[in-house]
C-alpha cells in the first residue's frame, strides 16, 4: 500500500495521517482534541488508544510483537473471525480465523459532528480466503476515536447459503499490575474454565487474577468494568450483539514461553473480550448482516455502582 496515496485519498489534515509503521505496515495515526490512536491497516487492528486526559494507554501492546505478514500482532484489539479459538472443524486452520493476519482495505475516513474521528476498514472474500473458508462475505470494521473508543464489526453474507460464525474483539487492556485488578459484572454467571480442563464453574463476586485465567462466560448481559487500582482508573465495557465474555491472562509460564511477549508481560495485561463463542454461535442468512459492537471508556470518578458490582448477589 502506498502511504502517499493513502494520505491523498483518506488523510485529514493533522487529525488523521497514514505513516509507515513497524515492519513497514501502514499505520493510521489519529490525534484529535479528545484522544490519540494508532490503527494498523494490516489485521484491521487498533494498536493504541489514549484519551487526552489520561497519562496511560487504554491498550496493552507487546514490545516484542511480530509485525510480519501471516503473523498476528500481540496486543491492541485483534479481530477473531470467522471463528474464535481453535479451528472448529479440526482442519488445521489457524486459531481465531484468518482476518487478523491480512491487509484490510481503507474504505473511508471522516470527522463526526461531535469532533470524533471515524475510520472504516473493509475485507471481502477472495479465492485465497475461500480456500480456507468456503463462503462469500463482506466484512467492515467501523472505528470511532473520541472520548471513548467504539468498534463495530459488521458481517455481511454475500453468499447464496447461510453461514455460521463465532468472533471476538480480543482486546488487550493495559493494567497497572495484574494483582490489583478486578473484573466486575460477571458475578453469578456460569463459565467454562479452559485453564482447568474446560470444567463448568460459577462465578462468585468479582473476577480477580492470581494464576493463569482462560474463561468463557455465558449469558453476559449489561456492562463490565475493569477496576484497576494501580492505575487509579476503571474501564467500562459496553457491548452489543454479544452474549459471551472471555477473560484471559497467560500468567508467568505461558508468558515466558511466548516469543512475542516478555516474561513478565502478564503483569501488565488483561484480555476482556467481547465475543460470540462457545454456545453463542451466530447464523447469518444470505443478504443479511450481523453487528458486533464494543465501547471502551476510561472513568476515574467515584461511583456507587462500583460497590454494587463488587458485592455478590
How does this model look, in words?
The protein is mainly β and about 325 residues long. The chain has a single domain (about 5-310), classed as Beta-galactosidase, Chain A, domain 5 (Distorted Sandwich), CATH 2.70.98. The chain has four helices and 23 strands. Strand 8 (about 135-145) and strand 9 form a beta hairpin. It is globular. Its EC number is 5.1.3.15. One of its GO terms (biological process) is carbohydrate metabolic process.
Please report the total strand number as a whole number.
Answer: 23
CATH class placement: Mainly Beta
Oligomer: single chain
What string gives the helices and strands in order?
HEEEEEEEHEEEEEEEEEEEEEHEEEH
Please tell me the overall pLDDT. 95
Question: Structural class given helices, strands, pairing?
Answer: mainly beta
**Major sheet: order of its strands?**
6-7-8-9-23-19-18-13-16
Overall tally of structural domains: 1
Stretches with pLDDT under 50, minimum 5 residues: none
Report the biggest beta sheet as strand number plus sense, adding barrel if it closes: 9 strands, antiparallel
Number of helices: 4
The separation of the N and C termini measures 53 Å
Q: How much helical structure, as a percent, in the residues?
A: under 10%
**What fraction of the residues are assigned to beta strands by DSSP?**
35-45%
- Overall 3D form: globular
Q: Could you tell me the radius of gyration in angstroms?
A: 19 Å
The CATH architecture category equals Distorted Sandwich
What is the CATH fold-level name?
Beta-galactosidase, Chain A, domain 5
Family: Belongs to the glucose-6-phosphate 1-epimerase family.
Keywords: Isomerase
Protein name: Putative glucose-6-phosphate 1-epimerase
Pfam families: Aldose_epim (PF01263)
